[in-house]
Amino acid sequence: MIEGFAALYIFMLAGFVGYEVIARVPVILHTPLMSGSNFVHGIVVVGAMVALGGADSGLEQLIGFVGVALAAGNAVGGYVVTERMLEMFKSSKG
């Protein structure tokens, strides 16, 4: 397992790379990118549940539960926003 500062370093590096990649995406591609990121958020929910399963103390379980709840809300909200954005592109009949 990765310990201490190595895990923090990887987290900071992933955050920086993620920001740089997203900042260079043209506006026209944001809707497909958001749809793809919703898939990633689903994986985050599963990862949070696995981490919650290994929690030992009550505090770890509480933090894990909050993490699962927030990740699930983020995934659901992403799908709702994507659906609303796709509705804008449908032709109106009548």
TrEMBL record:
Record's catalysed reaction(s): NAD(+) + NADPH + H(+)(in) = NADH + NADP(+) + H(+)(out)
Domain NAD(P) transhydrogenase alpha subunit C-terminal, chain residue ranges per copy: 8-90
Chief localization: membrane
Pfam name, any one: PNTB_4TM
EC number per UniProt: 7.1.1.1
Keywords: Cell inner membrane, Cell membrane, Membrane, NAD, NADP, Translocase, Transmembrane, Transmembrane helix
GO annotations of cellular component type: plasma membrane
Function (record text): The transhydrogenation between NADH and NADP is coupled to respiration and ATP hydrolysis and functions as a proton pump across the membrane.
Record-given protein name: proton-translocating NAD(P)(+) transhydrogenase
